Amino acid sequence: MASFEENLGGRLALLSPDTLDSDQKILYDQLRGTMVPWANKSGFRADTYAGRLIGPFNAMLRSPLLSQALMGMTATEGKESSLSEKVRQVVILTVGAAWQAAYELYAHAAVAEKAGFDEATIRALVAGQKPTGLAPEESVAFDVTQRLTARHQIDTELYERAIVTFGEKGMVDMIYLAGHYMTISGLLNTFTVPAPAAN
Fold first, then answer.
1. Burial class of residue 175, CB neighbours in 10 A (0-12, 13-18, 19+)
2. Which CATH class is domain 82-190?
3. What's phi and psi for 71, nearest 5 deg?
4. Which residues of the chain does CATH 1.20.1290.10 include?
5. Beta bridge partners of 53
6. How far apart are the C-alpha atoms of 34 and 75, rounded to whole Å?
7. 122 CB burial (10 A radius; 0-12, 13-18, 19+)
8. 80-107 pLDDT, tens digit each
9. What backbone torsions phi and psi does residue 12 show, to the nearest 5 degrees?
10. What is the three-class DSSP state of 9?
């Protein structure tokens, strides 16, 4: 059986901290100071026991300056979004399910649990299905995100429901969030990054 440290980079070797150039080291330190503690608090892993980054973060080290800008978007979205945490997790898991991004689903299933979703709801979202019992705004968020990722268009009826629910700012915030996680899912799927095996 492979150890926790093996094969977590998918098509990319996991980079050791002592092999990084100066730009990579800046990004590494940023991720170790922000994303790794957040992952630990949320109930998933973003690094190995040897301090190597996993998930999308290992791939990000290959382009550290663009990745720093992407992480700036992550930080700003988390602070400035008008969306509730539950709506955010519906959007993120719906994108992850559409892309079948294993690590994304692993990570945000844990985050969604911390946000207060029950196991059945999370299981349905991970499977790409609309759960029963979503709050009205969560239901609209699922519909918008699913339609945007699957058909790339929002019909008038759904658009009008979404505008009534979220307003124009909320719609823009939702599209930014969905697009951000499409980028993350693209990194994960291109490099076939797996979810860690359950302990």
1. middle
2. mainly alpha
3. -70, -30
4. 82-190
5. 47
6. 9
7. buried
8. 999 999 999 999 999 999 999 999 999 9
9. -110, 140
10. coil
